[in-house]
Amino acid sequence: MSHFSYKNGVLHVENVALNAVSQQFGSPTYVYSKAALVENFSAYAGACQQHSPATDSTLICYSVKSNSNLAVLQLLSRLGSGFDIVSGGELLRVIAAGGDTRKVIFSGVGKSREEMRLALSHDILCFNVESIPELHRLNEVALGMGKRAAISLRVNPNVDAKTHPYISTGLKENKFGVAYDEALACYRSASALSNIDVVGIDCHIGSQLLDDAPLLEALDKIIDLVNQLAAENINLHHLDIGGGIGITYDDEKPVAIDDYLSRLFTRVNAWRQAKYKGAPIKVMFEPGRSIVGNAGILLTEIQYLKHSEAKNFAIVDAAMNDLMRPAMYEAWHGVQTVAQRGGQAQIYDVVGPVCESGDWLARSRSLAIEAGDLLALMSAGAYGMTMSSNYNTRGRAAEVMVDGDQMHLVRQRENPADLFALESLLA
Ligand code: LLP
Fold first, then answer.
1. In CATH, 4-33+293-419 is 2.40.37.10
2. H/E run at residue 133
3. Which residues get modified to N6-(pyridoxal phosphate)lysine (predicted)?
4. pLDDT confidence of 168, banded at 50, 70, 90?
5. Which residues are catalytic?
6. Closest ligand 1 atom, CA of 382?
7. What is the pLDDT of residues 63-85, one digit of tens each?
8. Poorest-confidence range of 59-73, 127-141, 276-290, 362-376?
9. The complex's ipTM?
């Protein structure tokens, strides 16, 4: 996380000291580094350009659910990104951020008719269809609008992503996609529907993958299917391998994006050459965490230190409602003090004010701290703000984007009165 470093004993994001962020915007606050976002996106874009230079032969569709702040979407859109969405709400965010709807793909197992209509009216690139009933509903909705819906089927390649069971999605017991063995039959039904255009194939096997071997295994299986479909004259324009590459939270060593894409394109290009005489079937990606995860931190202030017989607690002003990942997955986030201070370190659990024992952000960390100090919860850019809630009627955190020595407030802190503004009293 080179964009997060100590200068004169104070943790900075790029050239902005985190205590300056808290002075100006308070805490808890999510703070993102624009340079880190650009660098992470460019790792994908650069590798695509290098290994598959033909125009329009690749597309990176950033997974909006990982961090959907409008400024993040705007920045990525300006860098040429498309978007992987999972709701009508995410589509409206992409539009509000100035994103190109013709670069939007719509994933998810439960798309409503209304969401389908919205997406069709904005001419999105493709629906990633996850079941036969969804396919029929989409055909019906498109017919009603006098439109055609471009689809890809999300195929479940049944490979083990070897990640946390809650974020593993490519095994046959998961709710996602259509079974590999049924995919051919599903494609036949899809291509017989009046208002459906079969354009692609898609898979996503899980998240926080450290090794690319399961992704390459999935790729081989998908390529096999595309060949079988071609033999039946169902010719696809794109292959979408999903997202899933992990990041370093503690001491994990995820595969480098460039190494992954270089291995992937070695296979894809050999296949393109053999089957398509080099014609570039488009390859698409849906990365989320590897673009935003290490580009953000959650800044929080210690309210109290509490020493009990069994444990020491640092009670901070951020909580599980701000960063759900520890409570939900026992996820590990680094904790750094914003101002380094001398003194004896002690072992602390970092916990929030929410009334649940599960409300912890980090456990058993050695910290030299005092009440009033600021802490940074590291690697919190992905699935941080987007999974936050208003539990305990806590307003959501502010979000700040740092660019060099500038800070931009990209989301105001929620005002408690806003939280019940849509509620009404009985007459
Ligand atoms: N495409 C699809 C269809 C997905 O379901 C996901 C993530 C992605 C792409 C992006 O995957 P990524 O590149 O970020 O791994 N809340 C969990 C992660 C859930 C991931 C859900 N799907 C966490 O905090 O770890």
1. yes
2. helix 132-145
3. 65
4. low
5. 355
6. 24
7. 999 999 999 999 999 999 999 99
8. 276-290
9. 0.99
